[in-house]
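Service request form, structural biology core

Requester: graduate student, group of Dr. S.
Request type: structure prediction, single chain
Budget code: on file
Notes: please return the result as structure tokens.

Sequence provided:
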Amino acid sequence: MAQFHPSSEAPMSASILVVEDEPGIQELLKFNLSHHGHDVTVASDAEEALVRIRDSVPDLILLDWMLPGASGVELARKVRADPRLKEVPIIMLTARGDERDKVLGGVCLSRGCIPSKALLHAAHSIASARESERRGITFGAPTIDVAKLRTWKESILSRLSSGIGQLAKMRGVQVMQGRGYFEDSRTLRVETGQGQQFIQYDHAIIAVGSKPAMPRDFDLGNPRVMTSTEALEMEEVPENLLVIGGGYIGMELGT
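Core staff response, request fulfilled:
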């Protein structure tokens, strides 16, 4: 996990570049950061982000993993290749739901908005084929091989997770898997498969992640009532799907 060590002399206000393609999430981040006095600039893809950076180097970049065109990891590599930007902190917002999860990227990459965006891309391909009839281009009725679709989705997650590992290695970030405990304000104890390890730090970022919440009235033990995790792993495409919840993952599934 990358760590951001702000200078003790840093001003309270910072210029922040938010790179996010979802308008709702983009607006939410901009509103909250601006409310705290920060100067916020937004970009919807890697190309626009590079233009913004050329115009003005930000103090901090908040970067979405999965962007249209070049991915967030690819953009991060380009930023780090520019000598002017080597010291600009990059935070890729994600979450970890399972503390023993071995996949870098947490909930967002493994069971959240990244796999849901991959499936949305596949759905968009079908919609585009249907809309092409207005332009005189007709395709046959689509057939969906769910098993192959899931394999394709998993290949995207694997590739992005591998990219995170490579990016961490390039930046000299030590990745450690385990359960962490704060011993005091400067010491973290990590229980790993190889035993306990102690880490001394100046600053720490806590990203505890999230997990689906099942309302008690809906927890009926019926397989048709599921969380977002099971929804992304369905073996058949349902005719109708009711999404309850307005968080990041719920918004993606309901789009």
